[in-house]
Amino acid sequence: MLKHVAEGVLVHESEFLQSNAVVVQGPDGVLLIDPGITSDEMAALANDIRELGQPVVAGFSTHPDWDHVLWHANFGDPPRYGTARCAASIHDLLSHADWKDRVAEGLPPEHADEIPMDLLGLITGLPADAAQIPWDGPTVRIIEHRAHAPGHAALLIEERGVLVAGDMLSDILMPFLDLEAADPLDDYLAALELFESVADDVVLVIPGHGSVGGAEEVRARIQQDRAYVEALRDGDVPDDPRVGPSAPLYWLPDVHRWQLQRLAQKAQNEAHE
Ligand SMILES: [Zn+2]
Q1: How far is the CA of 82 from the centre of ligand 1 (A)?
Q2: How far is CA 3 from CA 21, 42, 52, 62, 152, in A?
Q3: What separation in angstroms does the CA of 15 have from each of 28, 46, 108, 176?
Q4: C-alpha distances in Å from residue 62, one per residue of 10, 83, 113, 167
């Protein structure tokens, strides 16, 4: 079920973790961002798009995590873009003979059988300095940063004031750090600063998972994510409902504790170097 959220911008919310696929209408077709999770729901989305009377003319993946790089044959075969770093990261995964097993390890068991792997990750990397998505629809600015995952990009649909945030600015998930990176906390704070710098132009935020939020939510979510990351940095207990006793997802407090552990290990390793 496609929902209109702004002029020429539609969202499909998946059953899995409130994942949001975003459809942006251009004159000759749509741009499809992070298409969805299960085969059935992507086929249904392809139908909904067909009913708009427009083909899919481009795809984009906000980052190289499995839940953002899936595809369905019914979307057709347009170029599927990501940042150069995103493409490099997913191509590296696909270069391993056992990549399907590696991906399968991270899949949610309740949906694992319904997630199509055959077109996973066939991403064309954009030039490292690409400022916008190459298509003839409304200008979609690429805001690349290093939080959460390599080559993560948020997208700003400038004329509509819509920020497609990827796996950040969620009302249901606290920041998930890229713990493989050298400076995951600084990277995250820098990305939030980038969002802050465009916040005046944003009237709607669409997170990769969670609810679409209005203008006032944009700043509130930047604030909330920053407070969480700063608490991790400063060794404070975050005052954040997403990881508190009434967390919206029961497993989030565990992920929070795991992030704390990993950061502590990292600090220890660095002290010994
Ligand atoms: Zn995700």
Answers
A1: 15
A2: 10, 15, 12, 20, 25
A3: 30, 16, 12, 20
A4: 17, 8, 24, 8
Q: What does DSSP assign to residue 39?
A: H
**How far is Cα 148 from Cα 151, in angstroms, rounded to an integer?**
9
Could you tell me the two tokens for 206? 């669409």
Q: Which residues, chain by chain, have CB under 5 Å from ion ligand 1?
A: 67, 167, 208
Residue 267 confidence (pLDDT) above 90: no
What's the 68 CA to ligand 1 centre distance in angstroms?
Answer: 6
Report pLDDT digits (tens) over 182-236: 999 999 999 999 999 999 999 999 999 999 999 999 999 999 999 999 999 998 9
Q: Does residue 52 register a pLDDT over 90?
A: yes
Residue 104: CB partners within 8 Å, gap ≥ 6? 112
CA 28 to chain centre: 25
Give the closest residue to 160 by CA, choosing from 267, 23, 55.
Answer: 23
Q: 124 in helix, strand or coil?
A: strand
Residue (of 225, 84, 77) closest to 144 by Cα position: 84
What gap in Å lies between CA 242 and CA 205, rounded to an integer? 18
